[in-house]
Amino acid sequence: MSKKELDPKRVTATGNGVDQGITGQECTFYVIGVANEADKVHPSIDGPSQPSMSKGVDENGNVVVKYTPTLPGEYTVKVEINGKHIKGSPFKVEIIGDSDPKLKRIKKIQVAGRGVIIGKSYMNNDFWIDGREAELAAGLSVNIKNPERASSQLKINDMGDGTFKCVYKPTAAGQYVINVKVEGIHVPGSPFYVRIT
To answer: Could you report the per-residue pLDDT of 144-160, keeping only the tens digit for each?
Structure first.
């Protein structure tokens, strides 16, 4: 008896590898909804450099894809199953040069707290963003990517001293992805993959 065919429209990808990266640093993304069938997932990349892509499987059965771009610019990452694009593919990925002056400031921003590691559904989970060293006053964006059929209310409290307390309340268990960006660039550690129980 053959396995049920994977439906590319029900498969998603998440991570900085399908969003944004920095030259010389590894970019990673997760292909979710493939149930340990890595051999059916075909990622490819096109851009100023042609980095090779490695593919593996994590403990949740998601496919993990990694690559390291060597030149800045816009890249196109495609993820296909049986010759058909998954949801959101092709992805436009911005790779920033490691000498970009904005990076120096953004590297000083810190994110900490249990809420970017693990959390509980139907309860408030929190984390802090410390932008004091970077003199963070504007350009902060925080968003949470929820599992299918789930949501999370997010509140960002500006403490007035360059720090921000973020509180969110997820409605279901699963893996949530928290993106923290300043001026459109991920801060160190972002995106955060949070297991909600």
So the answer is: 988 878 888 899 999 99
DSSP percent split of the chain into helix, strand, coil, nearest 5? 10, 45, 45
Q: Look up the pTM and report it.
A: 0.74
User: How many CA within 13 A on the CB side of residue 159?
Assistant: 14
Per-residue pLDDT tens digits for 163-172: 999 999 999 9
Q: Which pLDDT score is estimated for 4?
A: 67
Please report which confidence band the pLDDT of residue 178 belongs to, taking 50, 70 and 90 as the band edges. very high
Query: Comparing C-alpha atoms, which of 78, 77, 86, 79 is closest to residue 8?
Result: 86
**Selecting from 3.40.50.720, 3.40.50.150, 2.60.40.10, 1.25.40.20, what CATH number does the domain 8-96 have?**
2.60.40.10
CATH class of 101-196: mainly beta
In angstroms and rounded to an integer, the radius of gyration of the C-alpha atoms of the chain is 18
89 and 79 in contact (C-beta within 8 Å)?
yes
Name beta bridge partners: 16. Answer: none
Q: Quick one: DSSP state of residue 19?
A: T
Q: Where are the domains of the chain?
A: 8-96, 101-196
Q: 2: Cβ–Cβ under 8 A, 6 or more apart, which residues?
A: none
